[in-house]
Amino acid sequence: DEYQPPATDIITLTRHVLQEGFQRQKKGAASGDLTILLSSLQTTCKFIESNVRKASLINLIGAAGNQNVQGEDQKKLDVLSNEIMINALKASGKVAVLVSEEDDEAIIVGERQPGTTFETEKGKYCVVFDPLDGSSNIDAGVNIGTIFGIYTVRDGSKGEVADVLRPGSEMVAAGYCMYGSSANLVLTTGNGVNGYTLDNAIGEFILTHPNITLPNRGKIYSINEGNSAYYHEPVLKYLESIKYPAEGSGKKPYSARYIGSMVADVHRTLLYGGIFGYPDDKKSKKGKLRLLYEAFPMAFLTEQAGGVATTGKGRILDVQPESIHERCPVFLGSKDDVNDLLKFYQ
Ligand code: AHM
Ligand code: MG
């Protein structure tokens, strides 16, 4: 084979986000603030990634009985990730409200106090996030990730909880970073979906998956079938239909893949197609996944990639949240697959 030199004109996330920002600014639709916020978010992902990579090594030290000078035990990775995000987002000066899975209450960012040198300004964005999702997978070294969604404060609001108690369709951007065999950041600003891979040597996310588009149909289903005893009829019937296709239908049974990290299960679904689900059932009346910072961002990405995201009864992005940590049933993925499921709900 002929020698292929490595690419020298790489598109980094920073470059891509800046370019998109310029486009918005040309249309008079942007101030550059979202660009700065996204830049801050990608830094948090790199910081969390670096901690995820060395987690077992740090825990080993902890297991040997080491404590810090205050006598505190090792911080858990999810708490650490939460602090990383809150500090960086506050410092960006672009946020007014933060909602994290790790904190019971929303954080309302205050005005800067006159005379203080600390650079915290209040901005016009609200960020909802799960700093480290899938944490039950940490100790086994299985993929985990950070999920985030971004709203703009409502006109006239200084930033309050009501600014995030809005349907996902009002989000201006959403994404996740998966910490797997590589770190992959997947992002939408409402203009399609792009995926970037972290090149650790230069510390930049590189555009490796431009314009991610779901195939209309996949061959994989992804659901915790261990909950079957609690599932409602439509889910059970649908699962049966894909596992035992009618004779003579020419259809083949689907493959099962379930990691138990939403970021990883959704990432695979975006790339390969198929269906991912975490339904409501007799035990979990509203399912398990959180509406604001799990269901909404993933539904936004799925729709932007040409897929469908539903609760079984309606579009996820149309759900009106009532509280910041509420749960929501989730099915998302390839158009034809999700529509097949919906037939069992009708
Ligand atoms: P977490 O926020 O406590 O980590 O829980 C969310 C995770 C998702 O990543 C994943 O889709 C789901 O829980 C898996 O749940 P289960 O173990 O019940 O299948
Ligand atoms: Mg979570």
Description:
A hairpin with a 6-residue loop joins strand 1 and strand 2. Helix content is 31%, strand content 19%. It has 346 residues and is an alpha+beta fold. It has 7 helices and 13 strands. The strands form 2 sheets. It has an 8-stranded mixed sheet with strand order 2-1-3-4-5-6-7-8, with helices on both faces. It has a 5-stranded mixed sheet with strand order 10-9-11-13-12, with helices on both faces. The longest helix has 31 residues. Helix 2 runs antiparallel to helix 3 and helix 4 crosses helix 7. Magnesium ion (MG) binds next to strand 3. 2,5-anhydro-1,6-di-O-phosphono-D-mannitol binds next to strand 3 and helix 5.
